[in-house]
């Protein structure tokens, strides 16, 4: 069975396979590594996501998609595959493999870190911690407010970030987190388009939608969080944390 696939990264060569999708071989002989794939229920639509960004990089269609999916079912089939791959991406970001249990954590402070301090000095040390944590909370609230403002007055009110292919036959809409929220295809165009052109148009539309998302002011700009940065630095260095609590360094 043959399949068509166009990658957003490099040209590919497709090798006929007995069943399912053709195996993808990159033009330099390398195989894709670590990327996430999913298919629709018919097995005719396959998508591939980048494991780091969760963004679509490839689409593949078997040559029997017209018979098994049909023109009317194509948008639903693509969305199903993309959502399944996205769920796998989110799962990979939150779950720790069983053969890689969380590393044991060392105590933040040695038992005698504050030894020799007067009770008043110890109270002052913990006041410093409380003040720093309050600053972190303020930074978090400011970051949330900024993210909401960059998505048009709130995360639920934004209509989405939409991109289309060059001829506007395919339209993809993403939400503020980059997940697909809508997909439309011109059925008139889809009825006569080649399989290769359908794949190209899908990738063009996704790419345009990602560009729309990236164009949101501040979307990819990290917030300035000096208090959180300070906590990260102190908790990664118990000796430094002890010196800070003892006011031996700022």
Mean pLDDT: 77
Helix content: 40-55%
Shape: elongated
Spell out the helices and strands N to C: EEEEEEHHHEEEHHHH
Largest sheet: 4 strands, antiparallel
Report on the structure:
With 250 residues, this protein is α+β, with helices and mostly antiparallel strands. The protein contains 7 helices and 9 strands, in the order E-E-E-E-E-E-H-H-H-E-E-E-H-H-H-H. The strands form 3 sheets. The chain has a 4-stranded antiparallel sheet, covered by helices on one side. A 3-stranded antiparallel sheet has the order 7-8-9. Helix 3 crosses helix 6 (226-235). It is elongated and about 85 Å long.
Features:
alpha+beta, 3-stranded antiparallel beta sheet, disordered N terminus, 250 residues
SSE diagram, text form:
Layout: E1 3-7, E2 12-15, E3 23-26, E4 36-39, E5 45-49, E6 56-62, H1 65-68, H2 70-94, H3 119-149, E7 161-164, E8 170-174, E9 180-185, H4 187-192, H5 195-214, H6 226-235, H7 238-245
Antiparallel strand pairs: 1-6, 2-3, 4-5, 5-6, 7-8, 8-9
Describe what is shown at a glance.
The protein is 42% helix and 18% strand. It is an alpha+beta fold and 250 residues long. It has a 4-stranded antiparallel β-sheet with strand order 1-6-5-4, with helices on one face. A 3-stranded antiparallel β-sheet has the order 7-8-9.
């Amino acid at each position: 069975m043959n399949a068509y696939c166009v990658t957003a990264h490099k040209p590919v060569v497709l090798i006929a396979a007995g069943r399912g999708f053709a195996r993808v071989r990159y033009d330099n002989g390398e195989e894709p590594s670590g990327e996430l794939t999913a298919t629709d229920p018919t097995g005719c639509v396959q998508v591939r996501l980048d494991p780091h960004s969760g963004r679509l990089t490839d689409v593949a269609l078997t040559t029997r998609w017209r018979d098994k999916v049909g023109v009317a079912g194509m948008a639903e089939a693509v969305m199903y595959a993309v959502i399944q791959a996205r769920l796998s991406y989110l799962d990979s970001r939150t779950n720790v493999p069983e053969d890689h249990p969380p590393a044991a954590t060392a105590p933040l402070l040695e038992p005698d870190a504050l030894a020799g301090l007067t009770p008043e000095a110890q109270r002052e040390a913990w006041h410093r911690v409380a003040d720093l944590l309050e600053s972190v909370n303020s930074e978090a609230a400011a970051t949330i407010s900024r993210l909401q403002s960059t998505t048009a007055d709130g995360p639920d009110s934004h209509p989405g970030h939409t991109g289309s292919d060059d001829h506007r036959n395919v339209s993809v809409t993403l939400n503020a987190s980059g997940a697909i929220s809508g997909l439309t295809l011109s059925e008139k165009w889809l009825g006569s388009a080649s399989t290769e052109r359908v794949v190209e148009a899908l990738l063009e539309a996704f790419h345009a939608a990602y560009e729309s998302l990236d164009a949101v002011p501040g979307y990819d700009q990290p917030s300035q969080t000096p208090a959180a940065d300070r906590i990260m630095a102190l908790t990664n260095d118990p000796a430094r944390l002890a010196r800070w609590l003892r006011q031996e360094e700022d």
